[in-house]
Design goal:
about 90 residues; alpha+beta; Glutaredoxin; four-stranded mixed sheet; 4 helices; globular
Length: about 90
């Protein structure tokens, strides 16, 4: 089964975005569809509408909104990230 699409709303200078990308790469993610909200005000509005949040990163794995960096790391620590990346379950 192919890995689901990873979409991350981010900014260039966000250390949490960098930490999240690093974790995803360590878990085998080769491509992250990065949406730079610092370059596109409409993308920021879309992120806030979809997630109800104003902070970055906001991470989607497939259709599942994982949340931010802390939620991504918690999901990984609980063993759920690898399952979600394999497309077998939702968070």
């Amino acid at each position: 089964m192919p890995m689901p699409t990873i979409r991350m709303y981010s900014t260039a200078v966000c250390p949490y975005c960098l930490r999240a990308k690093d974790l995803l790469r360590r878990r085998g993610v080769e491509h992250i569809e990065e949406v730079r909200v610092d370059l596109d005000p409409q993308a920021r509005q879309d992120m806030m509408r979809r997630t109800g949040r104003r902070t970055v990163p906001q991470i989607y794995i497939g259709d599942t909104h994982v949340g931010g960096c802390d939620e991504l790391h918690a999901l990984d620590a609980a063993g759920g990230l690898s399952i979600l990346l394999q497309g077998r379950a939702s968070a």
